[in-house]
Specification:
With 95 residues, the chain is mainly α. It folds into two domains: 45 residues; 36 residues. The longest helix has 42 residues.
């Protein structure tokens, strides 16, 4: 067997072993970090009852606000229509 080739194979195996150790270390760090982040999410998450209370507090007057906006829209359209009618009457009487 060629001694140079055996030496190259040995060096390659050492590099692969070092890279594998580095990857295992990084994976362990990622797993530990993910566990900490998951614990943080679990402790700070909002439960279903609290979420429903939040929705009721923030959006309970949603329909009322929409009706009010629709009312102002229709009033504005009515005023524009009235001005249009008045301008047409003024133009008709001038001729």
């Amino acid at each position: 067997m060629n001694p140079e080739r055996t030496n190259n194979d040995h060096d390659l195996l050492i590099r692969v072993d070092e890279n594998l150790k580095n990857l295992m270390t990084e994976f362990k760090l990622m797993r530990d970090d993910s566990g900490k982040r998951l614990t943080l999410v679990e402790t700070t998450k909002m439960d279903k009852v609290a979420f429903e209370d939040f929705l009721n507090r923030e959006f309970k007057d949603h329909e009322t606000r929409l009706r009010r906006a629709e009312r102002f829209l229709y009033m504005g359209l009515g005023i524009i229509g009235l001005f249009n009618f008045i301008l047409l009457m003024i133009a008709a009487f001038k001729h």
